[in-house]
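One-letter codes give the sequence; the fold follows as tokens. An example follows:
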Amino acid sequence: MSIWDDRILEYIDENDGGRVGEIAEHDLFRVSHSQISRRCTRLADHGLLRALGNGVYMITSEGREYLAGELDAGDLADESDETNGEATA
């Protein structure tokens, strides 16, 4: 997790969803569109965001728990990187 991940989650939570392009254009972010896209993909891989398609994301209940400090990022499974049938974080 990086500071950008927290900001992305906060933005999407506060705005009831978000598009990668609009997030990248917001003054809060000082990283490229492609970096925002990669981070959103990783956050979705860990179950904190849900991809709706076309670069649109919604925060999940796990994402809200993480923002509230109720969920440790180290406890999250990476759904895109499974080895031997076990998810790794």
Remarks:
- Helices lie at 3-14, 20-25, 33-45, 61-67.
- Residues 33-45 form the longest helix (13 residues).
- The radius of gyration is 13 Å.
- Strands lie at 18-19, 49-53, 56-59, 78-83, 86-88.
